[in-house]
Amino acid sequence: MTSKDIIIKNSVGLHARPATFFIQKANTYKSSIWVECGDRRANAKSLLGVLSLAIVNGTKVTLIADGPDEVEALDGLCALIDSGFDER
């Protein structure tokens, strides 16, 4: 199991469209992946789970992955978050 802390940088946080991109990316990996925000944790492959965390711009989250491609999964998801979900 591995984890990484990251700050959500896009303007709307992980809501609606960016959350959908995040879920789609998470589902490309075999590992179990979770998003932790404060004292709450959600399955990163569940749209309702991620939306229920109400993650806004500037929020620090912890991504946790456990499985055969856990490092690749965290690197890929962090790259997506760092890209700002290509919002302009």
Kindly describe this structure.
- This protein is an alpha+beta fold and 88 residues long.
- The protein has a single domain (2-86), classed as HPr-like (Histidine-containing Protein, Chain: A, 2-Layer Sandwich), CATH 3.30.1340.
- The protein has three helices and four strands, in the order βαββαβα.
- The chain has helices at residues 16-26, 47-52, 70-82, and strands at residues 2-7, 32-37, 40-43, 60-66.
- Strands 1-4-2-3 form a four-stranded antiparallel β-sheet.
- The N and C termini lie far apart (34 Å).
- The model has no long low-confidence stretch (mean pLDDT 94).
Number of E-type strands: 4
Low-confidence stretches: none
Count of structural domains: 1
Kindly estimate the percentage of residues that lie in beta strands according to DSSP.
25-35%
CATH overall fold name:
Histidine-containing Protein, Chain: A
Report the C-alpha radius of gyration, rounded. 11 Å
Average of pLDDT: 94
